[in-house]
C-alpha cells in the first residue's frame, strides 16, 4: 500500500533540536506540529518506522521524533495518491512553516507546520484533503 500522511506531533516543551547537518539546530515552541510526508513503496512500513524508537536518523522528522518530549499523537493519511505537496501548500496558508524542513526533494518551503492546538491542526489537514477531493483516514495514537 502506498500513499501520503500527516503526522500530528506534540512537542511538550520549548526545545532546541539538531535537525541534521543542513538545517542545524532549530528552536521549536511547545505545541502541535503537522509533518507531511509520502511513502510510495510501503505506507504501513513508513508509519511503523516513524512510530518506532529505534531507527537510523535519515529524514528531518527522524531527528525531531527522537526527542523524548516529541510524540506523534495522530496520523491522517491517504492511499494510492502522492499529494504531499498539495497538502503542504494548503497548510502553509493556515499555519507557520518551519523553513526547509522535510522538503529537500521538492519545491515546497516546508513540510512541517506549527498550529495553535490539536483541533485546529486536524481541521486544517482534513480541509486540505477536501480541497483536493482526496479521501483521508484518521488514526489516533
Automatic annotation (TrEMBL):
<protein>
    <recommendedName>
        <fullName>GIY-YIG domain-containing protein</fullName>
    </recommendedName>
</protein>
<dbReference type="InterPro" id="IPR002837">
    <property type="entry name" value="DUF123"/>
</dbReference>
<dbReference type="InterPro" id="IPR000305">
    <property type="entry name" value="GIY-YIG_endonuc"/>
</dbReference>
<dbReference type="Pfam" id="PF01986">
    <property type="entry name" value="DUF123"/>
</dbReference>
<feature type="domain" description="GIY-YIG">
    <location>
        <begin position="22"/>
        <end position="116"/>
    </location>
</feature>
